[in-house]
Amino acid sequence: MNSTNSRIAVAITVNGTAHELQVPARQTLAECVREELGLTGTHLGCEHGVCGACTVLVDGQAARSCLVLTVQADGATIETVESLANDDTLHAVQQAMVDNHGFQCAFCAPGFLMTIKALIDNQAVLTKATLREELSGNLCRCTGYASILAGAEAVLGLTGESNA
Amino acid sequence: MKMRGFEYHRAATLDDALATLSEFGDDAKVLAGGQSLVPMMAMRLSSPAHLVDTGKLTTHDTITETDGMIAIGMRVTHAALEQSALIATAVPLAHAAAPHIGHRAIRNRGTVCGSIAHADPAAELPAVAVSLNAQLVVRSTRGERIVNAADFFHGYLTTALEPDELLTEVRFPKRGAIAGASVHEVSRRNGDFALVGVAVHLEFAKPSTKKGAAVIANAGIGLFGLGGIPIAAVEAQSLLVGNPTSDDLFAAAADAVMRNIDPMPDNHATAQYRRHVAGVLTRRALADATNQALAAS
Asked: Does ipTM top 0.90?
């Protein structure tokens, strides 16, 4: 038996649905949601933890799904970008991005949206300056950061204050 | 690139993890938070045959105080360190360092012990460990030993850990009554590894009745991004201890830092730039740590 090709049992809940999977040890959580579960909303940019495009929530906390092995997520609850909209009703963070023309090509959008959702869910206490730090782990190659920040500030209620 | 295949071992207990490490030795790597190891595997800079996942050892996720030391278990994440009230009051240098580590999503997964065992010379926590003389608790099937931080870092990504050993806990000394800490670093982008970083912990003697500058009783200065290992600025530390704070004293300490380092040039910064910035950041961190200590006392 070539043990490196063996599959490992993993139980994970993704967007409210429980899954029992048999996965290769080297499979990343990003590959799992995209390829095993068909949830291709999670995007893979750099695949080594630099760009933030693949950010999902693991037990409510933002994580880079390219830096989490599926086997490490055994027992965890995962939220991907597909969990945001409720049928045709956009999540507040999505609507704020639409309203503020947040994204250009939107390849980075899933990562930004889930990073901001974690800030909302965890009731992060932020200023405009610390919001920039919180979003600094997500890269936008269109470089449209101003409009992304505008959308994030809108949904987080930071529009009124100064830039300090 | 996809990482190479490997055999996966999910440790159910600490003994289980140690037995697996003992069996496979050099062919095995410990998977803690995976925020350094997984990217190295994704780039095939590392291709271990066996991974020992400590993720289920959740009883080791505590931060506790024992005998004047603050013990951080191997499952404590950077985020938990950052948010710990005990760390904020008892180990101000670790508290100051935490927000500098990667980004939030990295801090949510990466562990304190994992970062120290990985021993990246540009990382914050190894420098915190050497500046505070941390004790590193190391376990194997052969037993337990405690390694002082000064003896732990042997070279780039290389430590005193034997192939069958696991870093199970880091112990930081609890701060003195009048203490302050500061971490300053320069990096290309927010969250990147530091081109140059300085971690300073200062403790002061109880103020005397007469007016005058506070006297430094204890000083720890850890440098990162300036060599193959995190560096304790020993000469600068001894210059400081026993003396009242002054701009001249801090300038002398910064000169000692600059004299004693031999930074490497790379695409991002020349050796000369790194040496210069190390001096600037040392002065800033000394001033900030002093202000923090005296404002609170």
From this structure: yes
